[in-house]
């Protein structure tokens, strides 16, 4: 009997309810592909935005009228179940984790990925649930704090959105790099954010960061909450405003400050970096998790069959750290 793949498709852009469970035939790995039985996959804000086709200019990459690749999910962890004839790096039985990137299809029972894609062997001390989240918050924040800007020991960093996937990873990485970390969150998350290492925690529901008069060498706006133009008085001389959420305002600020300004506003898309560079960065994330510097913050998990509920929850914007499906 032909083995089936359990996956989720997005036939059109829209709310979580557009997601459809599908069961096509399980593809066999070709050439340098490995087939992976997925044990856990992440459900991220970026996954929800891609499902919704937002922001609209992202459709230039995703498909203009409907998603070009109609499967959903990017971060995954599992076990290699078959290898193509030319595979050299992995063997059947290896536990692996990584990201499918613009191939999508990680919220599924199986996937076939090229062996030189963003895929690494998973150490035993890391659960599949934790491993599948490493390409979201940890990889993105390591990229922003060490490559977009070079955070140096003693630098004063403000993390806007300290309880999210990116923010919770950023606090841990920045403390490891020797920065003095201030993070914003709501009252319900202040203990979590302080326990991650933030030396100063600002409850954004009570205090307006822009009005505090404090200055920072780097402001990492993980949620795209403020525009660069709202915070110049909070940037120290030569300071940087870095943000992973692209908007028209951010693009204009990045272009303007790139030409003339002692401050800089910067955006980067991790997924558009070369695969080899991302693999090296993910290997660094792995070193940080192995040495206990970085522990992914886990919120809820759902059965794969309840992916619609997982998307509804993630889309509330209230998750603390990461959400996964099994
Ligand atoms: N450029 C890239 O390469 C890249 C890569 C990955 C992700 N991203 C983007 O990065 C963004 C962040 O994703 P994420 O997963 O970190 O977000 P998230 O986990 O969904 O953020 C949710 C958290 O933000 C907190 N929050 C909500 N409003 C806040 C406010 N005004 N001030 C401070 N905290 C607030 C919430 O806590 P309360 O409910 O208690 O407030 C909640 O804990 C997404 O837009 C994603 O698409 C970009």
Structure report:
α4 (137-148) packs across α5 (165-176) and α4 (137-148) packs across α8. It is globular and about 70 Å long. The protein has two domains: 7-134 and 296-325, Quinone Oxidoreductase, Chain A, domain 1; 137-270, NAD(P)-binding Rossmann-like Domain (Rossmann fold, 3-Layer(aba) Sandwich). It has 326 residues and is α/β, with parallel strands linked by helices. Strands 3, 4, 5, 6, 7, 14 and 15 form a seven-stranded mixed β-sheet that branches. α5 (165-176) links the parallel β8 and β9 (180-185). 25% of the residues lie in helices and 25% in strands. The structure holds NADP nicotinamide-adenine-dinucleotide phosphate. The site of NADP nicotinamide-adenine-dinucleotide phosphate has 32 residues, from α1, α4, α5 and β9. NADP nicotinamide-adenine-dinucleotide phosphate binds next to α1, α4, α5 and β9.
Short key terms for the protein model shown above:
globular, 326 residues, 7-stranded mixed sheet, 25% strand, alpha/beta, 9 helices, Quinone Oxidoreductase, Chain A, domain 1, 6-stranded parallel sheet, binds NADP nicotinamide-adenine-dinucleotide phosphate, 25% helix, 2 domains
């Amino acid at each position: 009997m032909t083995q089936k793949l359990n996956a989720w498709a997005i036939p059109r852009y829209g709310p979580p309810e557009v997601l459809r469970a599908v069961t096509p035939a399980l593809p066999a790995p070709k050439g340098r592909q490995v087939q992976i039985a997925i044990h856990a996959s992440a459900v991220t804000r970026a996954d929800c935005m891609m499902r919704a086709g937002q922001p609209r200019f992202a459709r230039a990459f995703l498909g203009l009228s409907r998603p070009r690749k109609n499967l959903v999910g990017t971060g995954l962890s599992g076990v290699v179940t078959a290898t193509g004839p030319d595979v050299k790096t992995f063997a059947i039985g290896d536990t692996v984790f990584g990201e499918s990137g613009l191939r999508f299809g990680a919220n599924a029972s199986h996937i076939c990925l090229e062996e030189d894609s963003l895929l690494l062997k998973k150490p035993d001390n890391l659960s599949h649930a934790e491993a599948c989240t490493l390409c979201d918050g940890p990889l993105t924040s390591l990229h922003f704090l060490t490559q977009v800007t070079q955070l140096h020991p003693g630098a004063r960093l403000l993390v806007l959105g300290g309880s999210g996937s990116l923010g919770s990873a950023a606090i841990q990485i920045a403390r490891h790099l020797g920065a003095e970390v201030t993070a914003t969150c709501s009252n319900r998350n202040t203990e979590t954010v302080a326990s991650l290492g933030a030396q100063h925690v600002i409850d954004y529901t009570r205090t307006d960061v822009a009005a505090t008069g404090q200055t920072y060498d780097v402001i990492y706006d993980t949620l795209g909450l403020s525009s660069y133009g709202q915070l110049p008085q909070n940037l120290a001389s030569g300071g940087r405003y870095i943000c992973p959420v692209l908007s028209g305002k951010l693009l204009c600020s990045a272009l303007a400050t790139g030409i003339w300004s002692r401050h800089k506003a910067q955006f980067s898309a991790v997924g558009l970096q070369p695969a080899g560079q991302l693999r090296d960065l993910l290997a660094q994330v792995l070193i940080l998790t192995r040495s206990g510097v970085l522990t992914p913050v886990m919120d809820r998990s759902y059965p794969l069959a309840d992916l619609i509920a997982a998307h509804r929850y993630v889309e509330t914007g209230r998750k603390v750290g990461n959400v996964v499906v099994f």
